[in-house]
Amino acid sequence: MDKRYNFTNRPRAALSRPTVARNVMSRPTVARNVMSRPTVARNVIFTLTIILFLVVILLPIYYIFLTAFAPGEKLFTKPLTYLPQSLAIERFRDIFSALPIARYMFNSSMLATISTVLALTVSLLAAYAIARLQFPGANLVMIGLLASSMLPGTATVIPLFQMFQQLKLMDTLHGLLILYGSALLPITTWVLVSFLRQVPEEIEDAAKVDGASLFPLLWRIVLPVIRPGVATMFLINFIVGWNEFFTPLIFARGAGAKVITMALSEAQVIGASSEFEVSWGNMSAVAILATIPVFILTLIFQRQIVEGITSGVFK
Amino acid sequence: MFSRHNLSTRRILLAYLLVTPVVLWRLLTSVYPFLRTFYISFFDHSPVRRTFEFVGLDNYMALTRDANVDATLSFTVFFTTTSVALQVVLGLAIAELLNQRFRLRNLTRAVNLLPWAMAPIVIATAARWIFHQDFGLVNDIIWRLSGERPLWLINITSARFAVTLTDVWKNTAFLAVIFLSGLQGIPLELYEAAKIDGADGARSYWYITLPLLMPLIISMIIFTAIFRVLSFEIVYALTNGGPGTATSLLSYLVYLEGFRVLNFGYASAIAMLLFFIVLVVGLLGYGLLRRAWERL
Fold first, then answer.
1. Domain identity same for B23 and B163
2. Which pTM was predicted?
3. Which of residues 164-203 of A touch B (CB under 8 A)?
4. Is B26 found in the same domain as B173?
5. Which domain holds residue A156?
6. Model confidence over B248-289: pLDDT tens digits?
7. Which of A88, A114, A138 represents a domain boundary (last residue)?
8. What angle is formed at CA A257 by the lines to CA A255 and CA A258, rounded to 5 degrees?
9. Is the peptide bond before A79 cis (omega within 30 degrees of 0)?
10. Which of B112, B122, B187 is nearest residue A290 as measured by Cβ atoms?
11. Which residues of B touch A53 (CB under 8 A)?
12. Given A62, A88, A114, which residue is the final one in a domain?
């Protein structure tokens, strides 16, 4: 246990080192203006590797865009044409007219947002108790949360399905919120505890002397201090919630509570004459709608997301 | 004295009050359903046949005779080992790459995160198109290079690799991000000292970077392995577990048995097998991790 804490503290301390110091390590050993031949070769190989890496990541994504915007039969050519031929939006028109796509996207964003807010709220309460109020069983709660997050979703789904039927929670957004929120709790609590432990308690003591009661204290003093942690977990939890598929597959069978990830398979069969005919164009159009929001978030908040991912592991 | 005791009792009560929502929420939606699954696994329970009959270990005995379970376990082993190995090696390489200084580094780091951010179901569904025999991206590239068009999803071995490669494409970014911050946490003095001793890049990687990262690598292997065993979307959408049962995973089998065949008792037994495997992987990994710490 002690050793583990040693390690978990080390990278964090080093992470906060100024950026300049960190980069010394990766600075080329030979000055740029006196490049010797091996260095030129190294640079070329390095650049090619970066390009290969970018191509492997971006080409499949680009291909899905190409598919979604390719008009009708233009899709099926051998060999493939990689330049966009046109910007045909007919597939988007098709899927919007055949499926309640707007409703699905509304449901996805509602579920992702509200479950995130709920999970952050109750996790913050628990994290405050664990990090600040020494009470017997605090460790047990932490370990219990971690252990419960290891229980496979498939090992809880059948009883939950029966509970949801009895409680009339099937096909409802509030039913799904219970499950979406539940999945977020363990990691959110863990990360918030680690953020709280990094913040000196004295700030709160001053407020306590002034007689601030718990909720104003949390809202006005604690929350602003750990805002980076909360913002990070908000982003990651939103992405996780938006991408959810297994839970709605089981618990949302009516259109009212369905989400955008479920439209992928529905879009494939729009206008299909047989069960084996698949509309890859329609599928790609839905894939784009389901992906654009998380791409925008990722590209804007890259730093915060990385911070969140690593704080879940290191802290 | 009395008031102090009073204060600490109040503090403890407040603490319990604050953790109650989280604990209760998890108990009701995770712990209780899990225990209930364990209970149901001893019953012949089907909502279609309207049965709920205690059958002892029958469901577990049936597991040992089920050819689908055999096929699923063998693919689980292939998928987990291959995918984890590829992800760790590529993750370390990408971390090293993203740790260098170059123009557009921030953009490259953001691009690295894109597969992580995409929904597994989107990637799995799109991968069916990417691996399409005639018009897929992968076969187009292979055809341009070799004139061949392999049957990705029809052939057993290649279907297994298609699933694995798709999984690696999506999840390596996560490991790369973690390893990158591990790399950034290694004190630079160590490398400077090694350079004075005449160690080149490769050697200082082997003797300094890898040993220091080892505990992190091992814990990520455990973590990644557990999530590979639990995977669902990737085979649900990419292969439907096929051809035949060649790419079936336990979560997918639970889904089929529970929500297509509606055989809750037997599906629960499969779910318990899944839990048992996750537990074993977790405990084995924890043992390995402790040994790695002792060596450090």
1. no
2. 0.89
3. 178-179, 181-182, 185-186, 189
4. no
5. 95-314
6. 999 999 999 999 999 999 999 999 999 999 999 989 988 888
7. A88
8. 65
9. yes
10. B122
11. 94, 97, 108, 112
12. A88
